């Protein structure tokens, strides 16, 4: 069970300032615990401490950064069930999905521990003309400086890890604002980091209200802002960020194409998981399912049957696949989208009912393209099916979106697979699986309204560092 209360972390130290933030059990709505809430003065102090820690963090040798990350790996492994249960309660995530996220948290820190020793540079030939004869050149990467991280509710362990672990690997101090709905996992990470000998001020974990969080974005002492969340909030933060570098991961409405030669049993098994795991609350959850007309009816019927078999309920139950959405408000929003789609001519194939924050696994077809369920991010257990006649037409439908995070293509034709990779305007194309597939060292991120920059430890480390050139004139 969760403790009665949790502190925030200011400059590496636990501070039990208050118990102002209620964290609720997302299944039954009860108050599960209370968390200290940072005010603007505390955030200002944390940024100042991060600035002061910058020189010491940059000077840490690679082996010592690796040691810190390896300590985190060991402690996360030891506290894995505690982390999973906290996630299950604070996010309403089914316990098996919660354990899976803990395993990814551990993977992410393991990857970072290795990458910390691979911050390499390059020797360059300077003698491209007579003018440059007698000069030598080389460059290396150096930490960008104090970073600001704002993380979302849906993966409150691993999406924090994808900011914190590369920052530690590259030598950047940071201030972190975890989602107010799900702050516990990040606070436990702070507790583990506080066991290390990181320089004073190297990290702060500060739950706070949105109104109090302005300094995370606007303070010019911070050199990078990494935000994961909604497009409306992300682009607004970018506009306020000033001169600092900005990395945004803003979600999508991921499409999956099922071509005529797909193995239907395999495709159904993968799509039903991709659409409904994490209760559909994933940026790359399957939302639009495009199926070749020759296999459409058979695929649809099997998928509907599979969706009806998914168990909804208490996320602590080992057999539960679909838990509650993050709030009743979000469930009401998405239920309203389903009802609007049905009123516009869409056909509900299964599900469509809501009780509190619980929304059934829902599939629809014949939904007009202008409906929110097609053109916006659903972020819940709902997906829309439609047939296509021509593969190139299907690719165009995938691109007919303001988002571009990942896409999945089920085809056995290598030429069509390469065609999809060439023309799809997304950050990643997954052949033979759903767009929801991800491992934590790959470059991950999107285009268009899906954001800027890439996660994946090595790629995040590039964002959190700068190239510094050295030129030597031979005497």
Keywords:
single chain, 475 residues, alpha/beta, Aldehyde Dehydrogenase, Chain A, domain 1, Aldehyde Dehydrogenase, Chain A, domain 2
Short overview:
By secondary structure, the chain is of the alpha/beta class. Helix content is 38%, strand content 22%. The protein is built from 15 helices and 25 strands.
Describe what you observe in this structure:
By secondary structure, the protein is α/β, with parallel strands linked by helices. It has two domains: 5-250 and 450-472, Aldehyde Dehydrogenase, Chain A, domain 1 (3-Layer(aba) Sandwich); 255-440, 3-Layer(aba) Sandwich (Aldehyde Dehydrogenase, Chain A, domain 2). Helix content is 38%, strand content 22%. Strands 15-18-19-14-13-21-22 form a seven-stranded mixed β-sheet, with helices on both faces. A six-stranded mixed β-sheet has the order 10-9-8-11-12-24, with helices on both faces. A three-stranded mixed β-sheet has the order 1-5-4, with no helix packed on it. Strand 8, helix 5 and strand 9 form a beta-alpha-beta unit. The longest helix is centred in the N-terminal third of the chain and has 21 residues, at 95-115.
- Main sheet: strand order: 15-18-19-14-13-21-22
At the first level of CATH, the class of the largest domain is Alpha Beta
CATH-assigned homologous superfamily of the largest domain: Aldehyde Dehydrogenase, Chain A, domain 1
Helix content: 25-40%
Rg from alpha-carbon coordinates:
23 Å
**Low-confidence sequence ranges:** none
Q: Topology of this structure?
A:
Blueprint: E1 5-6, E2 8-10, E3 13-15, E4 21-24, E5 31-35, H1 40-59, H2 62-78, H3 80-91, H4 95-115, E6 122-125, E7 135-143, E8 147-150, H5 158-170, E9 174-177, H6 184-193, E10 203-205, H7 214-218, E11 224-228, H8 231-240, E12 245-249, E13 255-258, H9 264-276, E14 288-292, H10 296-308, H11 328-343, E15 347-350, E16 354-355, E17 358-359, E18 362-365, H12 372-375, E19 382-388, H13 391-399, E20 403-404, E21 406-410, H14 414-423, E22 428-431, E23 447-448, E24 451-452, H15 457-463, E25 465-473
Parallel strand pairs: 1-5, 8-9, 8-11, 9-10, 11-12, 13-14, 13-21, 14-19, 18-19, 21-22
Antiparallel strand pairs: 2-3, 4-5, 6-7, 7-25, 12-24, 15-18, 16-17, 20-23
